[in-house]
Design a protein that fits this description.
With 379 residues, this protein is of the alpha+beta class. The chain folds into two domains: 3-173, no CATH class; 264-379, Leucine-rich Repeat Variant (Alpha Horseshoe). The chain is built from 17 helices and eight strands. It has helices spanning 3-16, 33-41, 55-59, 104-122, 139-145, 192-196, 214-220, 227-232, 242-245, 265-268, 272-276, 280-286, 296-311, 317-323, 329-342, 345-357, 361-378, and strands at 21-26, 70-77, 128-131, 150-151, 157-158, 166-173, 202-204, 207-208. Strands 1-2-6-3 form a four-stranded antiparallel β-sheet, with helices on both faces. Helix 13 (296-311) runs parallel beside helix 15 (329-342) and helix 15 (329-342) runs parallel beside helix 17 (361-378). The chain binds cobalamin and iron/sulfur cluster (2 copies). Residues 152-154, 158, 186-187, 190-193, 246-249 line the site of one iron/sulfur cluster (SF4). Residues 30, 32, 35-36, 39, 48, 51, 96, 98, 132-133, 137-141, 151, 154-157, 164, 166-168, 206, 208, 210, 213, 215-216, 219-220, 239-241, 243 line the site of cobalamin.
Length: 379
């Protein structure tokens, strides 16, 4: 079979197994080597140590396996392009859209494996390897080479039809195939995403400093969130979509059906209050199969406490005081901070009472800091 015909066939099969976009990339060294190395050298990857491993492979996917020649790059559309109704309440509009339903890693990997089986049945000598997100691959660069879209200034891969509401995966193959053509720049003189980012994480076009990105702090970071970052997180509990929501290419036409990606009813029933006080059993039940498990139970409780603090809403004082007696120091620490942000007599009394019995030195310090903030606010 001619490489061009085989490419058409594979693209169609990718759509048939349930992807919304598919294209073919020839494997080659990255054309953005200096930018990637600078990103690492200047610490833009923050605490994501895995990003500084296997650098040469990331910069040249031909090493993924010795006979690798090409990749079928695929895209899966998600909310609002799947007709999901807008999220309601205080919590769900502040959970990144990609993360409300089933974990896309599992969904896409399953579909890529199906595609791989079909390809191997038709081309018995073909070697395949599937990746979704977690491999040492510059997925957006590969996808851009496969014609799936162009880099936006917010660093997202941007497609003319579905904007950046597109998750990426790829199937590496030992077949030589005709590649698709890259799409030209879609941003022009627009800078709306840079202006919309509340933290200045998009320090220049096409460059994201993860140490200032809400998505990084709420999803990837384990442990205590620095004080100055907490205020910048606003109401976000998991991820952040602001630099995408600002993008004029991100319309809301319904063009795909992936009900698996929609927020399921039992999870939708959770609000911020439920999340901060969630116990192990309910956490396991509500977040089975969810990508939000990446932040772990205490990470989600931590983020919910910060969102409550940033709301300044006194109606959260009761549940925060309850959570201040909880089991995990990481959660108690952020709860103490939140009480200090909201303030009021009840919050102050609760913090003062806890100060006497708190055993964790970090939490104790946070309680002191919250109380002195409240004192200086009162005077
Ligand atoms: C690490 C990581 C993060 C980090 C760092 C993000 C970042 N921008 O690097 C954090 C935790 C912050 C993050 C956040 C998010 N992520 Co993320 N993340 C990744 C991961 C694992 C690696 C990204 C990477 O290689 N970064 C290194 C930097 C240097 O690469 P880059 O940003 O792509 O930079 C390139 C361009 O800037 C380009 N470039 C540089 N200069 C110039 C100049 C010009 C003119 C041009 C055209 C290009 C250009 O060259 C660079 C190297 O290729 C990928 C999966 C993967 N394996 O690729 C997912 C991935 C990028 N994430 C994804 C998603 C969905 C998100 C979030 C939207 C989640 C959310 N809602 O919170 C946010 C978006 C934040 C943002 N604006 O990027 C999707 C993106 C899909 C898409 N359509 O682009 C991916 C591809 C996962 C997937 N399989 O679908 N993520
Ligand atoms: S995800 Fe949020 S914090 Fe990160 S770059 Fe985009 S707007 Fe800024
Ligand atoms: S908001 Fe404007 S500059 Fe940013 S990615 Fe979209 S089109 Fe490009």
């Amino acid at each position: 079979m001619r490489p061009g015909n085989a490419a058409d066939l594979l693209r169609n099969w990718a759509l048939e197994v349930g992807f919304d976009r598919a294209g073919i990339a020839k494997l080659a060294a990255s054309s953005r080597r200096p930018e990637f190395l600078r990103w690492l050298e200047e610490g833009d990857h923050a605490g994501m140590a895995y990003m500084s491993r296997r650098t040469e492979l990331r910069l040249d996917p031909r090493g993924i396996f010795p006979s690798a020649r090409s990749a079928v790059c695929v895209g899966l559309q998600y909310s609002p392009l799947t007709g999901e109704p807008p999220a309601e309440g205080v919590l769900w509009p502040r959970v990144a859209r990609y993360a409300r339903g089933v974990d896309y890693h599992d969904l896409m990997k399953g579909r890529l494996e199906k595609l791989a089986e079909r390809i191997r049945a038709a081309f018995p000598d073909c070697t395949t390897r599937a990746y979704v997100d977690t491999g040492p691959i510059l997925e957006r660069e590969l996808a851009s080479r496969a014609g799936l879209g162009a880099f936006g200034k917010n660093t997202m891969l941007l497609n003319e039809q579905c904007g950046s509401w597109l998750l990426l995966g790829e199937l590496f193959l030992s077949l030589e195939l005709d590649a698709d053509v890259s799409i030209a720049d879609l941003c022009g003189s627009c800078t709306q995403c840079l202006e919309a980012c509340p933290t200045g994480a998009l320090r220049e076009p096409y460059r994201l400093d993860a140490s200032r990105c809400i998505s990084y702090w709420t999803i990837e970071h384990r442990g205590v969130i620095p004080q100055n970052v907490r205020r910048e997180m606003g109401g976000w509990v998991f991820g952040c979509d602001l630099c995408q929501e600002a993008c004029p290419w991100n319309g809301d036409a319904i063009t795909a059906q992936h009900p698996e990606m929609h927020l399921p009813a039992p999870r939708a029933a959770l609000d911020l209050t439920d999340l901060v006080r969630i116990d192990r059993e309910r956490y396991v039940e509500c977040f089975r199969g969810s990508p939000m498990k990446r932040a772990k139970q205490q990470g989600l409780q931590r983020n919910a406490a910060v969102a409550m603090g940033n709301s300044g809403n006194p109606r959260y004082v009761g549940v925060l005081l309850e959570a201040l007696q909880g089991e995990h120091p990481l959660v108690r620490l952020h709860v103490a901070w939140a009480l200090g942000e909201i303030g009021g007599g009840e919050a102050r009394a609760g913090l003062a009472a806890r100060r006497g019995i708190e055993s964790d030195s970090g939490v104790k310090e946070e309680i002191e800091a919250a109380l002195s903030r409240l004192e200086s606010r009162a005077s």
